[in-house]
Amino acid sequence: EYPCRSCNAALALRESGTCGLELTASYNVKRSLATSRSISPFLFCLAVAPCAMSWSLNVGFHQLRSVALRPAKEAIISSSPATRSMWTAWKAMYHTEGERKPLSRSASGASDIRSPLRAEKKRRAASMMPLNCQKQEASSKPAGTKQNRGIERERAKRLATDLGLDGIFPVHKPQNFTSYDVVAKIRSMISRHLRSLQPELTRKGAEIKVGHGGTLDPMATGVLVIGVGSGTRKMDFFTKGRKAYEAVGRFGFFTDTGDAEGTQIGEVHPWEDLTDEKLIKVLDSYIGDILQRPPMYSAVKIQGVRAYELARKGVEVEMKPRPVRVHSIKLMRPFAETAPDFHIYVDCGGGTYIRSLISDIALDLGTAAHMTKLVRTHQGRFQLEDCLTLDDMTPDKIVASITKSNELL
């Protein structure tokens, strides 16, 4: 049964009459069976090894990721409820260890791992709590400070509207105050009033929109239209609208700012031969549409930068002339009584600079001048007599002024 390779065994088989081909085939089959029994464990290990490695790497990766994310998870869970909900959505996306959730499916039936996060963002947007505006503060702070600032401002806006603090009213801007200083003072006053009525509002959350309808220089005084709430949308009308000024110019020299607050430029020019007739003749030539070059110290933007910011840095930029309209201009007092000063009244459109107007008038008269005083007497339908002053301003007076302004407009 077990043929041997030795010559004696082969001779014995041949003598017994067994076919050599049959012996060879039987020998090959039995040898292959014996060989397969010895090699099969190796083939089995070779086939199973990749699967085992893949499984071990997958399990190890999940365990490693869970260990790495555990401190972040604990920190996030201890923060605000909004962040905890974001953690839940993020965990559903990446299937972190411990709380695995099945993949959600889109309308087409395909798996979409981004759906939990999208659903969370939509839910926050519907509840007026944007994810990028949520305040993640410590739990030791008062409950009022945890509310979303956007929601607080909506509440403050509704409260201000109910109180009548929504509209337009004129203010008498004092000297040495910028227009923004007046706006900031009024915004702070209204904010304090709203917080006194609803203490749960924060300082930032109680702020409502306040704007002005035309910049006045710090040295200038007069009518400054203020818009509160929805009234800020109408400020562009007053910025470009009609205005009236009473100005005082002084002959002698120019300044770098065009007014008395600037530094003298050049020498003193003579002015003694000027008369009322010469002044009136030059003043009449400016009535109508003219081209005016704004002063370097102005709020005009040059490639997105205010001109006065460039002037303070010593950057010289050529100011391009702009079309403006002067409705009327006249001499208010005889020049002989006020020399070297001259008093003028100017009724003009938006964008007119009285400082530049005084400098141009002096150049036409062959001398130099700068502005020493400026009062805005009219802006739109508002007059100086209708204005509130900052010293005696109260929320109740603002409401009364807004009501009066609504009737006037």
Quick overview:
The protein has 409 residues and is α+β, with helices and mostly antiparallel strands. 43% of the residues lie in helices and 18% in strands. A hairpin with a 2-residue loop joins strand 12 and strand 13.
Which secondary structure elements does this structure contain, and how are they paired or packed?
Blueprint: H1 7-15, H2 20-77, H3 81-94, H4 115-126, H5 149-163, E1 167-173, H6 179-197, E2 210-212, E3 221-228, H7 235-240, E4 243-251, E5 254-255, E6 264-265, H8 276-284, E7 288-292, E8 301-302, E9 305-306, H9 307-312, E10 322-331, H10 335-338, E11 341-348, H11 354-364, E12 369-379, E13 382-383, E14 388-389, H12 395-408
Parallel strand pairs: 1-14, 3-12
Antiparallel strand pairs: 1-3, 2-3, 4-11, 4-12, 5-6, 7-10, 8-9, 10-11, 12-13
Helix pairs in contact: 3-4
Describe what this molecule looks like in 3D.
The protein has 409 residues and is α+β, with helices and mostly antiparallel strands. The chain is 43% helix and 18% strand. It has twelve helices and 14 strands. It has helices spanning 7-15, 20-77, 81-94, 115-126, 149-163, 179-197, 235-240, 276-284, 307-312, 335-338, 354-364, 395-408; strands at residues 167-173, 210-212, 221-228, 243-251, 254-255, 264-265, 288-292, 301-302, 305-306, 322-331, 341-348, 369-379, 382-383, 388-389. Strands 1, 2, 3, 4, 7, 10, 11, 12, 13 and 14 form a ten-stranded mixed sheet that branches. A two-stranded antiparallel sheet has the order 5-6. Strands 8-9 form a two-stranded antiparallel ribbon. A hairpin with an 8-residue loop joins β2 and β3 (221-228). The chain is elongated. Residues 1-6, 18-25, 93-114 and 128-147 have low confidence and may be disordered.
